[in-house]
Q: What sequence folds into this?
């Protein structure tokens, strides 16, 4: 026909017109159209046609006729029974495929569910306070030395001053960094961990009080709040504890004014006692009151109707009036602004770069969520691939079902239902696996996660996962199989289009891309963790013991030292105000000749005793250690290379340096060593003289192999000199490991995940390979008869799969490179990403894939062609 | 007298089906209506009436042959059922009876 009616109108008619009327209606309209073309011309005819189509938009034409044949209900018990029977028979007949499917899915689900539980736990941390949404942490953003830095450390008085100035603030409370103090009550002595906190603490945070009132808990300078655990430990019960007195550090007595419930598992702060805010000031007299110091944290509770952005703008210049170090005329060179961080976000977003909050654990939460989705995806792809590959076997069933009247939607329902049934079995297997794995997982991640069966949200999530996985895994086979034409299937002329194979192959590529990403990630994380742990820190962390100097030890330090030096097995002794590895105290209060007065340089500082370099085994480049032979050493300073560079003396020894107003000179220059985390670059360091300090840590360098004896004698001496305190020590290398705990956990977890990913992917590959080998039995037989060797047949079969793995490697490498580079940015000291990592990961993937595939291929190639060709 | 109600348009369509006899289908009926009564009705209106009449049992239908100009689609051919025939006869009888009851001068003259 030269002219056809407008296509879209036709489509519209086909769409809305009831199927049983369509033929006659459309026929009539065509007939009329042909007449119109003849009589009125094409344009008019088309217009008429459209008008006619539209005029059929009437109830009688739209209303669908109930089908002429009786339709058994989709959910009819008889049909359901049939579906189940067929599904089970299929499962049973192909035991290996079913096992691969269920096992793969179960493993993927186990991982994803574990990660889901972990993420859920992470997201809930600190989210239990009734005032949570209105709680904020005060943050300082400092501009100095051309750099922007942010920190949660604020001046001690700020939490007392700020509520007076801003009506938006309901409560404010300072909160110190955690401290460890020795408690002495009822003849029990033990170390406890806790903080100093502002008087409003219990009004702001939902920590239930078992005894005492929030008003008086931390009001008087000698009040004390302890946890239920401590109350039971020292006094037997929370009620008995109230009003009792506890001697702390064998020095001061405090009255227990309140007993609070032990902190919940999902609290990021773990304190067993709280001391009043005034007490903090008393202990840090002079230093605490100085508005230019960055000390403890400060939390505020805003009124619910506060416009936070506007309030933050008002808050920003608050310190200008208090901090004398800020010159209002020269804000460009030095300035401190205040800003707020929502309390509930602190736990996951605790890192600051360039003066902004830049993330933290949230990155691991995101990373692992992605990994969870990936693993599930790999498992789903297995399922899809195996089902589609084997669809030829079920095509006959589809044909028969269609002939006896199954509609497409029912077939889709049937196949998705089957997929869901399998998923359900896999979920049950996964739950059993999780129950077995959880204790180990908890230990690894330092959590107390349990399977939350009682919570409806968990059940819903499980259902959701079953539904999503079932639909995802079952959709392609369902859509594909149900689209087959019964005539073709039953005539035996069914040919699978190359499209289906291509689809399958791309899915395999996706699987291996993900596996490669995980392998590469694992390699990089492992190398980096290893690098950090074995990197030369600049000081020797083996055979080094830290012992806190407390109680009687600081006054008796000279005696202690004398006794210790006589002990066998001890190589050197010194002391430091902080543990090397955790030195962060910064100050810019340092002066020297030729200093530019407008520049504020942040110097990390620490105090140390005699023989520091000898004990730490830090290399002295110039000058000497603090020594009892020089009385002038009390104003001597030892600096590191970074500090020497910033100060700028050509030959720093004996040059003047004024630190915290104390005039002195530089006596030693040490090589740079890592005194804080390796996430940060080495900063300029000034070591001042601290032999006579009344706090700090004793550093004991033991002879290799004699640590045990040294420890035993150390304990006797400490007990003797300091009977009121328990003996306490840490090893330098263990403390160091703790700094990189989260990296280690990530490393271990990602190894497991990578192994699992490649395992699940190979399960699928194994299934596919055996399927292909089975399908090509005849072809291989013919080839062998014609003289093909076993190697050429294996090459033929395996080559196809290897091609896919190689493509996956090519795709995954740049992505992995980009992502891992991003991760490494977080470290100041990092490994370069080398080509051999890609080669290693690639070889690993190829090797494992080859192993998987060749088993089936060799089996097929070794088959006797007589057998494979006879059967017809 | 108890009988099925027939609308005016339905009655005409039913009559046209009878006129076309064995070759009555949508377009043919529409054309015949146009030619005989001068009414230009849409195909959909005719289809709707046919559909209703079939529901009332006055028409029955069967699929006929396909033609090229219909794009290979078959026609639905309608025939009047006994009930339909009865209804037409009833209407005609009633009208005749009414006509015969009108006195000759009761209606004003209309022509010539």
A:
């Amino acid at each position: 026909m030269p002219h056809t009616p407008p296509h879209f109108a036709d489509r519209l008619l086909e769409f809305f017109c009831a199927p049983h009327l369509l033929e006659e209606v459309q026929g009539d309209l065509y007939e009329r159209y042909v007449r119109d073309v003849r009589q009125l011309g094409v344009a008019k005819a088309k217009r008429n046609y459209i008008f006619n189509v539209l005029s059929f938009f009437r109830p009688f034409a739209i209303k669908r006729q109930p089908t002429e044949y009786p339709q058994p209900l989709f959910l009819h018990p008889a049909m359901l029974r049939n579906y189940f029977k067929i599904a089970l028979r299929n499962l049973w007949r192909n035991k290996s495929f079913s096992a691969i499917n269920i096992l793969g899915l179960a493993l993927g689900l186990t991982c994803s569910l574990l990660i889901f539980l972990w993420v859920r736990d992470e997201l809930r941390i600190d989210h239990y306070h009734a005032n949570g949404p209105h709680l904020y942490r005060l943050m300082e953003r400092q501009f100095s030395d051309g750099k922007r830095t942010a920190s949660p450390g604020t001046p001690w008085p700020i939490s007392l001053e700020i509520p007076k100035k801003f009506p938006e603030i309901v409560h404010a409370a300072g909160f110190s960094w955690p401290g460890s103090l020795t408690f002495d009550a009822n003849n029990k002595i033990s170390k406890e961990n806790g903080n100093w906190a502002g008087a409003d603490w219990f009004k702001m945070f939902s920590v239930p009080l078992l005894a005492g009132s929030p008003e008086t808990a931390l009001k008087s300078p000698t009040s004390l709040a302890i946890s239920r655990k401590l109350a039971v430990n020292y006094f037997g019960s929370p009620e008995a504890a109230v009003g009792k007195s506890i001697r702390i550090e064998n020095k001061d007595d405090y009255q227990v004014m309140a007993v609070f419930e032990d902190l919940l598992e999902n609290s990021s702060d773990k304190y067993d006692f709280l001391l009043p805010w005034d007490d903090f000031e008393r202990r840090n007299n002079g230093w605490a009151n100085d508005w230019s110091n960055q000390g403890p944290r400060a939390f505020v509770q805003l009124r619910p109707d506060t416009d936070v952005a506007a309030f933050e703008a008002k808050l920003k210049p608050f310190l200008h009036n208090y901090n004398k170090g800020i010159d209002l005329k020269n804000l460009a060179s030095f300035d401190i602004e205040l800003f707020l961080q929502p309390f509930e976000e602190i736990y996951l977003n605790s890192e600051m770069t360039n003066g902004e909050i830049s993330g933290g654990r949230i990155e691991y939460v995101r990373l692992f969520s992605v990994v969870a989705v990936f693993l599930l995806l790999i498992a789903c792809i297995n399922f899809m691939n195996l089902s589609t590959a084997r669809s030829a076997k079920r095509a006959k069933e589809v044909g028969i079902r269609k002939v006896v009247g199954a509609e497409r939607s029912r077939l889709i329902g049937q196949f998705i239902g089957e997929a869901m049934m399998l998923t359900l079995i896999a979920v049950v297997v996964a739950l059993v696996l999780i129950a077995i794995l959880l204790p180990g997982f908890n230990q690894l991640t330092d959590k107390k996660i349990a399977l939350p069966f009682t919570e409806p949200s968990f059940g819903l999530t499980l259902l959701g996962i079953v539904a999503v996985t079932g639909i995802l895994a079952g959709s392609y086979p369902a859509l594909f199989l149900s689209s087959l034409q019964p005539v073709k299937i039953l005539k035996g002329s069914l040919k699978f289009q190359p499209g289906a194979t291509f689809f399958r192959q791309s899915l395999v590529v996706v699987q291996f891309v993900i596996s490669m990403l995980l392998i590469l990630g694992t390699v990089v994380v492992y190398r980096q963790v290893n690098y950090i742990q074995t990197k030369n820190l600049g000081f020797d962390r083996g055979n080094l013991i830290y012992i806190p100097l407390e109680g009687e030890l600081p006054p008796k330090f000279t005696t202690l030292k004398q006794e210790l030096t006589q002990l066998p097995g001890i190589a050197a002794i010194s002391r430091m105000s902080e543990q090397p590895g955790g030195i962060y105290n910064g100050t810019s209060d340092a002066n020297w000749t030729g200093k530019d007065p407008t520049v504020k340089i942040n110097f990390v500082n620490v105090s140390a005793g005699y023989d520091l370099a000898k004990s730490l085994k830090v290399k002295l480049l110039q000058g000497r250690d603090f020594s009892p032979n020089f009385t002038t050493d009390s104003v001597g300073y030892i600096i590191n290379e970074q500090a020497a560079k910033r100060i700028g003396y050509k030959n720093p020894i004996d040059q003047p340096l004024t630190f915290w107003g104390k005039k002195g000179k530089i006596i030693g220059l040490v090589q740079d060593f890592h005194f804080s985390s390796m996430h940060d670059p080495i900063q300029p360091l000034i070591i001042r003289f601290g032999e006579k300090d009344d706090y700090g840590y004793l550093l004991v360098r033991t002879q290799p192999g004699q640590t045990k004896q040294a420890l035993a004698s150390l304990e006797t001496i400490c007990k003797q000199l300091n009977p009121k305190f328990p003996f306490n020590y840490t090893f330098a290398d263990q403390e160091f490991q703790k700094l990189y705990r989260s990296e280690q956990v990530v490393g271990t977890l990602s190894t497991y995940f990578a192994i699992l990913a490649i395992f699940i992917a190979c399960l699928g590959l194994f299934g596919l390979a055996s399927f292909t080998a089975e399908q090509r039995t005849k072809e291989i037989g013919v080839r062998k008869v014609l003289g093909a060797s076993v190697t050429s047949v294996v090459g033929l079969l395996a080559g196809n799969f290897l091609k896919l793995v190689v493509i996956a490697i090519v795709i995954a490498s740049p992505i992995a490179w980009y992502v891992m580079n991003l991760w490494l940015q977080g470290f100041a000291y990092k490994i370069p990403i080398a080509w051999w990592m890609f080669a290693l990961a690639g070889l690993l993937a190829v090797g494992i894939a080859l192993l998987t595939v060749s088993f089936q291929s060799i089996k097929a190639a070794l088959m006797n062609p007589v057998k494979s060709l006879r059967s017809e | 007298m108890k009988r099925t109600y027939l609308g005016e348009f339905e009655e005409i369509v039913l009559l046209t089906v009878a006129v076309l006899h064995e070759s009555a289908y949508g377009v043919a009926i529409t054309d015949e209506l146009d030619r005989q009564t001068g009414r230009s009705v849409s195909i959909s209106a005719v289809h709707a009436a046919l559909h209703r009449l079939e529901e009332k049992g006055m028409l029955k239908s069967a699929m006929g042959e396909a033609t090229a100009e219909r794009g290979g689609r078959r026609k639905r051919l309608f025939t009047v059922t006994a009930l339909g025939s009865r209804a037409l006869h009833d209407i005609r009888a009633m009208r005749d009876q009414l006509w015969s009851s009108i006195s000759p001068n009761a209606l004003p003259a209309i022509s010539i």
